[in-house]
Specification:
The chain is of the alpha+beta class and 332 residues long. It contains 8 helices and 14 strands.
Length: 332
């Protein structure tokens, strides 16, 4: 089952999603399905002649796990301490192509009554259960899970295709949740890695841009002319002769000088950012040049410090994932 689901890459993408978005939500279920293929008995590469026989084979027929986009998942409450203990009902609303719907749900009752979203746009009464932004050729699948009453409801573009008990004998929500770093001890969603490392980056960028603006103005200061002067291009050229009227004065404006205090503020700001978040060295990011043994140890310890909390959270979520997958293996 783990090889079929490519558990190694599955784990990599789950951890990447948690780090980039702050929260990863996983689904654990089961897939079956069959397909008709042509079994080749003989084939002549010179003439292209072949002898085949149509046979039916399994399309998946195994436990199935996937990542649920956070924008598709709607728990009954997000102000919870533990998803596994405190969330007992949820919705999963997703959009898929009509061909994909026929492959996955085509054998369900009333599946033949489901039409693409474009079918309802021409009608005056818009069916319930369809979002306004659904692509015209797609189908919106709404799934409702309730582990208290042991119910699963499924609707496709407003057409009910299943309503009954949860098909998994563990009788729990088939979802698991992990965070990169908690925001609050009673909040379901977590903080992402970019948000954690951002610190006071906006203030740092503002001061740095101001220093660069002042430097640019200093290098390209305006020229003030008192009198008639043959200069309209806005720049001076070497070895060019300019005609001045008697008594005319030309002087360069002393603007845009970079105050050394600005560099001191920038340095203090960067130090504050490192203290309020994590320094580059503590993040495990090389700062250039050759490294001593102590610096290498600092980089290693910093990288582990950054990842240690996330690894603990993901290990707990991975355990929840296996607690959902293992009963499915035994059941199916």
């Amino acid at each position: 089952a783990n090889d079929h689901n490519n558990l190694l890459m599955e784990t990599v993408w789950e951890m990447y999603t948690a780090m980039s978005e702050g929260t990863v939500i996983g689904f654990e279920g089961w897939r079956q399905g069959e397909r008709e293929v042509e079994y080749v008995k003989s084939f002549n590469p010179d003439t292209g002649e072949k002898e085949t026989e149509k046979v039916r084979s399994d399309l998946w027929d195994d436990v199935y796990g996937c990542i649920v986009p956070t924008e598709e998942f709607f728990p009954e409450n997000i102000w919870v301490n533990s998803f596994r203990k405190d969330v007992q009902r949820c919705f999963w609303v997703r959009e898929m192509s009509f061909a994909g719907f026929q492959t996955e749900f085509g054998a369900y009752p009333n599946a033949d009554k489901v039409r693409p979203a474009s079918y309802f746009i021409k009608q005056d009464d818009f069916e319930w259960g369809i979002s306004e932004n659904v692509y015209s050729d797609n189908v919106e699948i709404m799934q409702y899970y309730d582990e208290v009453d042991d119910k699963l409801g499924m609707w496709a573009n407003g057409v009910e295709i299943y309503y009954g008990c949860l098909p998994w004998n563990h009788k729990r929500l088939p979802f698991w949740v992990s965070q990169f770093e908690p925001i609050h001890h009673q909040f379901l969603y977590g903080k992402s890695l970019p948000d954690k490392l951002m610190g006071m980056q906006d203030v740092n960028n503002a001061i740095l841009n101001n220093i660069l603006d002042q430097l640019y103005i200093s290098l390209n200061s305006p020229i003030f002319v008192d009198g008639d002067f043959d200069l309209e291009d806005g720049f001076l050229e070497p070895k060019r002769i300019y005609n001045l009227e008697p008594g005319s004065r030309v002087q360069k404006g002393q603007l845009g000088s970079v105050d050394p205090t600005s560099f001191q503020v920038l340095s203090l700001l960067r130090k504050s950012m490192e203290e309020s978040s994590i320094s580059a060295q503590a993040q495990g990011v090389p700062s250039g040049g050759r490294k001593t043994k102590f610096e290498v140890q600092q980089l290693t310890e910093g990288a582990m410090q950054l990842a240690s909390l996330f690894l603990q959270l993901y290990e707990s979520a991975f355990r929840d994932k296996m607690l959902l997958r293992t009963p499915n293996v035994l059941q199916y």
